[in-house]
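#onboarding

Welcome to the new folks! Below is a worked example of what a typical request in this channel looks like: someone posts a single protein sequence, and someone else replies with the predicted structure as tokens. Don't worry about understanding the tokens yet, we'll cover that in week two.

Example request:
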Amino acid sequence: MRYSKTFIPTVKEVPADAEIISHQLMIRAGLMRKIASGTYAYLPAGWKSLRKIMEIVRQEMDVAGALEVTVPMVQPMELWQQTGRDVDYGETLGKFTDRHGRINVLSPTAEEEITYLAAGEINSYKQLPVNFYQINLKYRDEFRPRFGVLRSREFIMKDAYSFDADEQMLEESYRKMYDAYCKIFQRCGVEYVIVQAESGEMGGSGSHQFTVPCENGEDVIVHTEDNSRAWNIEKAPVDPLAKQPTPDDVGDIEEVHTPKVGTIEAVCDFLKTKPRKMVKTILYGSDDKVIAVLVRGDHDVNEEKLTQACGGKHIELADEATVVKVTNAAVGFAGPVGLAENVDTILVDNAVAAMGVLIAGANKTDYHVKNVVPGRDFPLEGDKVTVTDLRSAVEGDTIDGDKLLFKRGIEVGQVFKLGTKYSKKLGAKFLDAEGTEKPCLMGCYGIGINRILASAIELGNDKNGMILPISIAPWEVIITLAGNSDEIIDAGEKVYTQLKDLGVDVLLDDRDMRPGVKFKDADILGIPVRVTIGKRSIAEGNVEVKLRAESESENVKVNAAAQKVGEIVSTLKNKLKCGT
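Example response:
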């Protein structure tokens, strides 16, 4: 490709709304342009990189035995209503009504659609296992799109769905995808960590998340000090805290007037106490069923752990009217004392059960209560009460006595064991060898194509621009003509032609521009290998070869340049294939 014949509109200025380096550089390097909040158009260089990522994904999925299909991005709402995920996704689900009055969904994922497709085609165990995958646009109506393509509304995703006859077959399908993902991220040149994860809205019995460690990542990775175990924050278990003794002189419950101080911080300031000595009582559900959740004042409810404690069913926070009805108080003054009579279930976090004495809301507007003793003043056992792990891990926590550490990361892929959640509801069944009808066991496997590119940029950059892995860079080599003499142009054309003949993906910067501009554009694009042909080097019969990731360059004879660069390209590619 000749630079003069493509379109790479690089810019010097950092976009005002670009918060992180990958967003900034994807705009500045001319990879993409913003169309609206959370939606982007990919320009030739950006689309070229994404196509390379997609090809790596396709190759490894095909090797693993998955079969590529494509299904519509527009899905009938009825499928989502059958699985109940129209409620789970809530306002994140993009939808519209067509001219016939039918409600349609803009696909955020394709479990419903692929399962519906399989239900119409699979009828015998002899057809199993089978794994369908696609690479397609997805849409989620994110409340706050940010960080460029890391949290966008429209994105490109590879999603795959396996259909199996039994647990052993599902485990084999799951392991094939797990191994394929390792190869994909290795070949894309991004460092990754595999963590145990919750299934979230996907449901199912098990999940692993592939995460790129990165300071700008929105996910939190929790791991042991020796890195032998890792989880995302939604999954990370914690050891129960040691039981605190109840002071011998603790008196009866004491009601304290706390006017207009409904938050933990405000109450602590007013009562001169600390959040870890308080309990938050949070109500979930509605008039049909109300669940009270108790966590320590300095802890947060882990929504995924809460979902699992509720049998895998997602529940929403109770509205203000429900809170007032249940507690007879304004929002901010709910407490555990006497609450059992008015709720269906009380879920108590282990850390609350371990407290010796605490402060809580009084179920009375503008009042809190002191000297509250768990087990004495509110129940820790009984038909309505469950004590379990409900909170997110924090600094200082342990698991099995091992200290937990924290770092941020970008989720680039996740694999799920779905079981029969979707197959039962959408009728994906088969007859086994004895003629018995059974639901298919399913797995789901997703990869964020855009996120791989953004993650690579977050990991590989310097003050001059991107430093991309050779497998996903828009071009493997750039030839920079630092001058316009016949000797320079002839040498550039020769090396360019020879590299193309060797199968190298090369960009010839043949623009009539100053060398400094060309050097800056080559750097910001992150192309791994640069061949510079200038007046001084060509006078000696040489070209200059430099790796983008290194500061030193090497002079190579013109006649040997293509062979040398081809060897460099092969070496860089092989390192990724071998994981070195």
